[in-house]
Every structure is written in structure tokens, then in C-alpha cells.
From TrEMBL:
Binds 1 Mg(2+) ion per subunit. GO terms for molecular function: kinase activity. The keyword Transferase applies. Pathway: Metabolic intermediate biosynthesis; chorismate biosynthesis; chorismate from D-erythrose 4-phosphate and phosphoenolpyruvate: step 5/7. The keyword Transcription does not apply. It catalyses: shikimate + ATP = 3-phosphoshikimate + ADP + H(+). It is found in: Cytoplasm. It is an enzyme of class 2 (transferase). It comes from Flavobacterium turcicum. It comes from the Bacteria. Mg(2+) binds at S15. This is Shikimate kinase. ATP binds at G11, C12, G13, K14, S15, T16, R120.
Length: 172
């Protein structure tokens, strides 16, 4: 059964879009960060603090690989870094897989993230200038992996509903 994978940088809207899409097409939704949090009974922040990022990436890969092995149909919202570690991007081209990169500009990401950074350990301690710089460099480094998705939707200036409609059009 098909898997719809939404990927992209922190704040591009994976969780928000995946939730709405799931309701709209009536396919169950899972958020990878939430699954990891449930599995370890710790927040993403706490996992980074207690166990470090490498441990988080290991668990992230295990949880993602398990989901991809299941036969269930689902919408999966990945974590921002998921495509960039442990060859997770190799799952993007499988049979019955629709992988979609939600592409946002540095400015869009900055605007969305600077109001709500505390839950995101990679940026939580940065001031505005550091954050802009960090997003620009990080996005550049990660773009190769994001571009492994089968489809790309530019999300700048689009409402949640518009982006969801574009995803649905791709699936048709
Ligand atoms: N048009 C839009 N589409 C999606 N999200 C939007 C839009 N406008 C504002 N937002 C807001 O931007 C934020 C996007 O966050 P969301 O948690 O969905 O991103 P994410 O890609 O899942 O990030 P992370 O990788 O950190 O989990 C939310 O606060 C959401 O309400
Ligand atoms: O971009 C990243 O590397 C991350 C994004 C979040 O979704 C979480 O998975 C975590 O904060 C790491
Ligand atoms: Mg998310």
C-alpha cells in the first residue's frame, strides 16, 4: 500500500501539511518525531540532551525503516534531518512511495522558526542573526538529500490549504 512521505527543512510545514492531508484523503498520518518521542518516552529536545544527536539519528532510522517495511497505507511527516542520515533517502524511490519535498526559502523558514524555536534543539540557543546564517548554510548542505524526493512543491506564500491541494494533485 502506498506511503506518502513529506520531507524538508525544519519549519517547512511537514507536520502541519501531513495532518491536514491525512484528514483530507483519509489516510492515517504518522509524524516521525512524535513516534520517536513515544518510543523513548522523551521529547526530541531531551533525547538530544541526554543521549546526543548520533543516538537520535540511529533511532530515527530504525523507526523510519520499520514504518517503510509495514504494509499499511500512511502519510509520513519526516523530521527535518531524516533524509540526510543513514541512507534514509534511499526509501524515497521505492514502489508505491510518493516522496515530496516541501521547499521553503530561507526567509520563510526564518519567519516560521524564529517564533517557535525552543522545541528544536539545533536552533534553540541561536539569536536572530545566527539563526539566519545557520539556516542558510544548513539548507545548502542538506539540499542534495531533499532533492532526492520524487516531487517538489514550493511552499512560500502558500496557505496550508493551497499546499495540501497541490499534494493531492500530485497524487492523482
Ligand atoms: N502555509 C503554511 N504551511 C505550513 N505551515 C505554516 C504555514 N503558515 C504558517 N505555518 C506554520 O509554520 C510552522 C511549521 O511547522 P511544522 O511543525 O509543520 O514544520 P515541520 O516541517 O514539521 O518542522 P520540524 O522539522 O521541526 O518538525 C507551524 O507553526 C505552522 O503553523
Ligand atoms: O532538522 C533536524 O535535524 C531536526 C528536525 C526536527 O524535525 C527533529 O527531528 C530534530 O529536532 C532534528
Ligand atoms: Mg514536524
Amino acid at each position: 500500500m502506498k506511503k506518502i512521505i513529506l520531507l524538508g527543512y525544519m519549519g517547512c510545514g511537514k507536520s502541519t501539511i501531513a495532518k491536514k492531508l491525512s484528514k483530507s484523503i483519509q489516510v492515517p498520518f504518522v509524524d516521525l518525531d512524535e513516534m520517536i518521542e513515544k518510543k523513548l518516552n522523551l521529547s526530541v529536545n531531551a533525547i538530544f540532551e541526554k543521549h546526543g544527536e548520533i543516538y537520535f539519528r540511529k533511532i530515527e532510522h530504525e523507526v523510519f525503516a520499520d514504518l517503510m517495511q509495514s504494509t499499511e497505507e500512511m502519510v509520513i511527516g519526516l523530521g527535518g534531518g531524516t533524509p540526510c542520515y543513514a541512507n534514509n533517502h534511499e526509501f524515497f524511490k521505492g514502489e508505491n512511495v510518493f516522496s515530496i519535498y516541501l521547499k521553503a526559502s530561507i526567509e520563510t523558514l526564518f519567519q516560521r522558526l524564529h517564533q517557535n524555536k525552543s522545541k528544536r534543539p539545533l536552533i534553540a540557543s541561536k539569536n536572530e542573526e545566527e539563526m539566519r546564517e545557520f539556516i542558510a548554510k544548513h539548507l545548502f548542505d542538506r539540499s542534495f538529500y531533499y532533492n532526492q524526493a520524487q516531487y517538489k512543491i514550493v511552499v512560500d506564500e502558500k496557505s496550508i490549504e493551497q499546499t495540501v491541494s497541490e499534494v493531492i494533485a500530485l497524487l492523482a
